[in-house]
Amino acid sequence: RFPSVDLSYITQGETALKRALSILQQHTSSLLSQDSGAAVSSTALPGLGKVFRAEVILAVPVAQLHQELFERIEQMPQWNPTLSQVKVLQRVGADTLVTHEVTAPSPGNLVGQRDFISVRHRGKRETAIYLVGTATHIEPLPLQEGCIRAESRLSCIVLQPLAGDPSCTHFTWLLSMDLKGWIPASVINRVLPQSQADFIKHLCQHLSATTCP
């Protein structure tokens, strides 16, 4: 049904989802902070390095979050000032995208501007929706002047209706990145969990959401 290149994107997405599911079952992590109402923890895993996990309960139903984070992904820079562009380069079936994401330049940014080429894949297990991402390759490669091409080793956002209150969502986000360039691990280990907290804050502001008690 799909050409082999397209199939490879689907396979990459499904592989990333399986990996994320196995990580989500592990609970060996240390709490780093609680910012924007989100609890952020980390764990070190072979082949991925540090994986950061942010969890928060949002007063928004799963369907609305799913629309914002997958269906309307190109509109993300309108509400998330840390991004200057998100472009869908290719759609493969209903559940897989290839995207080019560019971070916004920021004077106080310790990391500098980065861009990412990623496969994004949507999966569903029972009532939960899983939005996974991982670095990929596409031809022709989009070039972004002034950016360093970084890689998302693994990203997985889990949207699960809150038991007893489907108007709220249990939001979990796993994140592991290779930001490339000469950046000390101590800086990366500060920047990534902060970027998760900032993303959740901007998402809440955009949806005028609050964290559920």
From TrEMBL:
SUPFAM superfamilies, A to Z: Bet v1-like
Higher taxonomy: Eukaryota, Metazoa, Chordata, Craniata, Vertebrata
Protein name in UniProt: Steroidogenic acute regulatory protein, mitochondrial
Keyword Chloroplast attached: no
GO annotation terms (biological process): cholesterol metabolic process; intracellular cholesterol transport; regulation of steroid biosynthetic process; steroid biosynthetic process
A GO molecular-function annotation: cholesterol binding
Annotated ranges, domain START: 49-212
Localization (cell): Mitochondrion
Domain of life from the UniProt record: Eukaryota
Coiled-coil parts of chain: none
Oligomeric form and interacting partners: May interact with TSPO.
Species in which this protein is naturally found: Falco tinnunculus
Gene Ontology cellular-component terms listed: mitochondrion
Signal peptide: none
Alphabetical UniProt keywords: Lipid transport, Lipid-binding, Mitochondrion, Steroidogenesis, Transit peptide, Transport
Pathway this chain belongs to: Steroid metabolism; cholesterol metabolism
UniProt xrefs under InterPro entries: StAR, StAR-like, START-like_dom_sf, START_lipid-bd_dom
Record flagged with keyword Mitochondrion: yes
